[in-house]
Each structure stands twice: as structure tokens, then as C-alpha cells.
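Q: I'm writing a short methods note and want an example of a predicted protein-small molecule complex. Could you take the sequence and the SMILES for LHIR3OJJ and return the bound structure as C-alpha cells? Please keep the output block clean; save any remarks for afterwards.
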Amino acid sequence: MIPQKRKPVPEPDAQPFSPQFSCRATGFGFTKMKKVVLVTGANSGIGLALCERLLSHDTEGLLLCLACRNVQRAQAARAALLASHPAAQVDLLQMDTSSVSSVLRTAQEVKVRYNRLDYLYLNAGIMPNPEFDAKAFFRGLFSSKVITMFATGDGILTQKDGVTPDGLQQVFATNLFGHFLLIRELEPVLCQEGRTSQLVWTSSSNANRSAFSLEDIQHRRGTQPYSSSKYATDLLSLSLNQHYNKQGLYSSVVSPGFVMTNLTFGILPSFPAFLWTLLMPVFWLIRVFTNTFTLTPYNGSEALLWLFRQKPESLDPYAKYHSLTSGLGNNYTQPHKMDITFETSESLYIKLLQLESDTRKKLAETQSAGPSLKT
Ligand SMILES: NC(=O)C1=CN([C@@H]2O[C@H](COP(=O)(O)OP(=O)(O)OC[C@H]3O[C@@H](n4cnc5c(N)ncnc54)[C@H](OP(=O)(O)O)[C@@H]3O)[C@@H](O)[C@H]2O)C=CC1
Ligand SMILES: CC(C)CCC[C@@H](C)[C@H]1CC[C@H]2C3=C(CC[C@]12C)[C@@]1(C)CCC(=O)C[C@@H]1CC3
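A: Understood, no commentary inside the block.
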């Protein structure tokens, strides 16, 4: 785990039944309990902007935990957050969402460190080896689908996926399955009597039913693993609500819009970052026609922050909450019904439970075989 200096602030309450905003007695009188918020992929882009905005919203009432795969980048993000919010408590965890053992180890550490988890932002994500279809893009520019194309990226992007050392498809493992395992492992801290917890997924407008198949949930055979993983995210969120709402756990999905981050810079690799910046006036113009061009991580994190402020019971499990920015640059959040069915979400859930069980068995076998048998 990442070494860090911890500030002498009170630990969250040890009582599982204590309400979210309760006070507890300490040697120095009564102290308001901190809400514990964990964000995956928090060291850059939308995740980092969210952390910044959460701390601006409530510096002292939150215990923010950044779960990142790269220790140096995580430490840099923590330093940046503390520079603007010196009174904040920001912890670090090393976690690679694409690795089963890393997720299980991190979950264990979370359970040891914190005995409550109020918000879990499932934000880490990748779009590896993207291929931009310039021909389809120019055809799209002169078609009736031009606005949809700019809002969703539909029809102009494909990716080449890889396989993880656990034998899972890279995009599926990183964007969806690692997060699913994390939730399952964290059940004891997420589902506590007398308290609600929220899961917030960074999904995408690129989630598309046509890219997803229940017969191939990992998208081994297609060329749109990213779109498939985000559609699966939408389905999974619905089934998590079905299975966990009665235990006080609620799940929602967000579409941050089109945001310029490391992920999107990778789409046109021959296009250096400064050229994207030069295109800003073009993007501002496009924003007049589609409010999905949020462009900055700050704007893109709007719906993620909005959900933080909502009562989870009031949220619609069939809605995707979109971060939107108007032509004049004003941010707002709007729910849109998702193109998903209850039956498909349940079928996916069953398949994920089966994969979880297979993966755990495989890991146990590898571990019992001992390190000498590992390649
Ligand atoms: N940018 C956009 O237009 C949109 C983005 N999204 C989604 O937003 C989320 C955040 O992406 P964004 O901010 O754009 O891009 P960034 O690349 O800036 O952020 C992605 C974050 O995920 C982390 N990450 C990647 N792989 C892993 C892994 N295996 N384990 C742990 N962390 C990992 C990255 O860490 P590291 O720095 O080490 O790579 C990084 O912190 C993603 O889920 C993405 O799909 C959705 C719609 C639009
Ligand atoms: C003038 C040209 C260089 C403009 C090129 C624009 C496209 C590269 C982008 C238009 C819509 C964008 C988009 C995404 C990526 C970049 C675009 C295709 C996403 C697919 C990125 C990841 C997501 O999750 C959703 C985004 C939707 C819009």
C-alpha cells in the first residue's frame, strides 16, 4: 500500500448502526463524523476534477480516498489536492482494476482502514488502441446523424483489446469486472444497517446496445469493447439496485459528455495535445448544437458531484445522469432514460456472479500451487 503521512483526525465511527451525520464523543468533545468517499482512477481527468470539487464542497467533512494504479501519479494528485485544500484528509490506495488479486487486496485494506463507505465512485476506465474512422467521420458530418455522432462517437471509433494475466478481456476487466468485484468484496462496509451508501459509475454516451451481447459479455469477438463495457455498466447498475437497495446500497450511472482527457487525447495519437487546445473554438461552436461537449474535466464531473448531493432513494435506476454544458458555458445535470431492460440486466448479473466464482476458484488454485509454478 502507498506510504503516507496521516493527519491526526478522528477515525470514522466504529458503530455500524450510527447514522450518516452523527456526532461521536472523543477526548476533545463531540466531533462530526467524516463521510468516507472512495474514487477509482482519481489521479487524472474526470476523477481528479471530481475530488477537487468534492473537497471544495466540503473540505473537513470528507475522508477522501484515491484508489489509483500508479503510486507516483497518485501521490502527485494527493499533493495537488492538499495544496488547494490543506485541511482536507486525503488517503491513497494502490489498485489496478484490471487485476483480480489487486482488487481483492485493496478491498481488504479498505475494510481494515475504514468501517464505513458512504460513496464509491467507479470511475477508472480505458479505451486502448483506439482507431478513428476518418471516412465515417466525414460521411457523418454531412448526414442527418451528425449531432448523434458528436454526442456519442457512434460509428467512428473501434478499439483493439488485449487479455489480462487473469485471462480476462482488458477493457471489460478494467472498466467493469474489477469494479464489480470491488463492490462485492466491500459489501460489509457498503451495506450497513441504518445508513445508505451510493455507487456512482462513470459510464458514457458511447454505451450502445448493438455493441453488447449476453453471449459475449467480455466482448472477445467484436471491435467495440469500450462501448460494450459501458453498456454493461448501465445494465449492471440497474441489477445492483435490484439486489442491494433493500440493504441500503444505491447505484447510478453518469455520462460526463465529451471531455478532453488522456483518454480522448489517445483517440488521435498523431494529434498532439496542443492541437486539441487549438480546436477549442471549433468545439465551443459545436457546443451550441450539442450540450454534451462539456470539454473540461471540471464540467464533465458535474453529474458526479450532483449525485453526491442527492438522496439516493430519490434517484431513477433506469436513468443515466448526463453532465451537460450549455452554449453559454453553464453546467447542469439531466437524467435520460437508458436503453436497457430489466431481464437483460438480470441475465448479465447472473453471468457476472458465475465469472466471479470461476475467477476466485482460479486464483485460489494458482495461490495454492505456490509461486514456483507461476510463469
Ligand atoms: N473523456 C471523456 O470524454 C469520457 C470519459 N468517460 C469515462 O470517464 C472515466 C475517466 O476517464 P477520463 O478522466 O476521461 O480519462 P483519464 O485517462 O484521465 O482517467 C482515467 C483514470 O483511470 C485510471 N485507470 C486506467 N486503467 C486503470 C486500471 N487498470 N486500474 C486503475 N485505474 C486505472 C487512470 O490511471 P492512469 O493515470 O494510471 O492511467 C486514470 O486515473 C473513464 O471511465 C472513461 O471511460 C466517459 C465518457 C466520456
Ligand atoms: C475536428 C475533429 C478533429 C474533431 C474530432 C472529433 C471526435 C474525435 C470526437 C467527436 C465526438 C467525440 C466523443 C468521444 C471521443 C472523441 C469524439 C469521437 C467519446 C467516444 C470519448 C469516450 C466516451 O466515453 C464518449 C465520447 C463521446 C464523444
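A: Remarks, as requested: The CA atoms of residues 174 and 266 lie 17 Å apart. The pocket of NDP (ligand 1) is lined by residues 40-41, 43-47, 68-70, 73, 95-98, 123-126, 174, 202, 204, 256, 258-259, 261-264 (CB under 6 Å).
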